[in-house]
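$ ./design --mode recover --in tokens.txt
reading tokens...
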């Protein structure tokens, strides 16, 4: 039996563990029960963790929806040439935003890190700003000295600044840059490929965020970090290039296990000849994909940003020292794959009251454009959804779900004989894809309202009062 399969069976036999709200303590109840014991984390980890909040976190990135101009305004002061940094403009985006390459270090091992090729995936860019602060302001730190002597880091932050300007995945032309590694139709992808060809990295880091709803394997636990050694062919063969990547992924897991046991997963190894990580592996760089998922309660991914930083430092240190050599591939292989994607919010037990239709017993599922802040909600499904799990559940028993219309602040309940102006809208059934705008009411007409969802959850009243 393949180890991964054995682990899946083991996980299904385990009692599901409820995901606790974010705490500083490791989630000891959610230990991953991997078949291979995870070694203790690096000895420097707790000191670096302690240093982080006061001396390493780059200031000014508290809201993760920043644009590239803002990010550079935070990062550029950290990139002093007296601290060994060099910044070069290496291209321009479709909308003429600068694409920049940051270089640091004097060592012979070339490492290329690129972030935010998907414009709404900003966690790594925050962690890279923290890394710049660490490298620049702590030149005497043993980890920094080692890195400086043995590696040359090439960093391409925010590959997709036009996407970041809109906080959207794709570039200004609507193209997914991580499906453009083969055709190189976009200036952003061409710039990344040209940088790769120029610096000929031995190691690559392909830095992303993934959907918050992903579960770790068959468990109920959300994936906080997912790792992948991207394959270079359809057979997902393992050569020396991938062996090194798998070792480095194991190092990252080892560093993060004390914080995220049970919440670290692995992407599936299906080869995509258009994806950068797959091709950089094919081109000879030991590439690790790191995906930031989510930690419940960490709405701006600030805690995850710190862990991302610590994981990156562990990976880079293992490259600078060569310590990843011989790390058991089981540390990577034993990770559960990314499993189901849970919807963000379920309302269970309510009665749908759409004007013109008879009241109907129905559950409701809502997905948010930003699941952690619960903003930009859209209906995902309606009906008997008792078998569907969700990240959060609201008990709507005894309540009516009544759609609303109009602008925020002057909302009206939609009525069957609605003769208001266009803004009030025609009756808007809560069908999949529709904006999630409704009240929970004690009466079918929506007059005695106990809770409102107007696209965004109001943080002051995230749930109806307990009745
Ligand atoms: Zn991505």
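writing sequence...
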């Amino acid at each position: 039996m393949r180890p991964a399969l054995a682990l899946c069976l083991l996980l299904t036999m385990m009692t599901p563990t409820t995901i606790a709200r974010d705490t500083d303590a490791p989630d000891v109840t959610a230990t991953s029960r991997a078949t291979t014991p995870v070694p203790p984390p690096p000895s420097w980890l707790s000191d670096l963790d302690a240093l982080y909040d006061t001396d390493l976190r780059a200031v000014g990135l508290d809201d993760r929806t920043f644009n590239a101009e803002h990010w550079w305004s935070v990062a550029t002061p950290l990139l002093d040439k007296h601290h060994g940094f060099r910044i070069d403009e290496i291209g321009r985006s479709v909308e003429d935003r600068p694409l920049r390459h940051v270089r640091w270090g004097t060592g012979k091992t070339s490492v290329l890190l690129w972030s935010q090729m998907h414009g709404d995936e900003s966690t790594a860019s925050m962690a890279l700003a923290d890394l710049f602060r660490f490298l620049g302001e702590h030149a005497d730190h043993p980890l920094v000295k080692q890195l400086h002597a043995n590696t040359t880091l090439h960093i391409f932050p925010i590959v997709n600044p036009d996407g970041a300007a809109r906080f959207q995945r794709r570039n200004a032309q609507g193209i997914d840059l991580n499906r453009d590694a083969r055709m190189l139709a976009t200036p952003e992808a061409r710039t990344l490929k040209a940088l790769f060809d120029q610096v000929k990295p031995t190691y690559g880091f392909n830095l992303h965020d993934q959907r918050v709803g992903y579960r770790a394997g068959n468990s109920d636990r959300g994936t906080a970090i997912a790792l992948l050694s991207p394959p270079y062919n359809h057979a997902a063969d393992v050569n020396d290039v991938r062996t090194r990547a798998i070792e480095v992924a194991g190092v990252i897991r080892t560093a993060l296990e004390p914080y995220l046991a049970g919440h670290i997963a692995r992407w599936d190894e299906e080869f995509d000849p258009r994806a950068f990580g797959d091709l950089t592996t094919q081109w000879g760089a030991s590439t690790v994909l790191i995906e930031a998922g989510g930690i419940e309660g960490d709405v701006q991914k600030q805690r995850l940003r710190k862990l991302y930083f610590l994981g990156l430092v562990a990976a880079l240190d293992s490259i600078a020292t060569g310590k990843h050599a011989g790390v058991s591939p089981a540390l990577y292989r034993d990770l559960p794959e990314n499993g189901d994607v849970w919807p963000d919010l379920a309302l269970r037990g309510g009665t749908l009251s759409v004007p013109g239709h008879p009241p109907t017993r129905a559950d409701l599922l809502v997905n948010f454009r930003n699941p952690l802040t619960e903003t930009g909600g859209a209906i995902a499904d309606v009906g008997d959804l008792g078998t569907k799990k969700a990240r959060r559940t609201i008990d709507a028993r005894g309540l009516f779900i009544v759609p609303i219309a109009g602008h925020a602040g002057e909302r009206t309940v939609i009525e069957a004989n609605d003769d208001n102006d266009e803004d009030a809208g025609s009756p808007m059934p809560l069908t999949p894809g529709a904006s999630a705008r409704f009240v929970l009411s004690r009466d079918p007409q929506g007059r005695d309202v106990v809770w409102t969802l107007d696209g965004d959850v109001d943080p002051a009243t995230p749930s109806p009062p307990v009745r």
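exit 0
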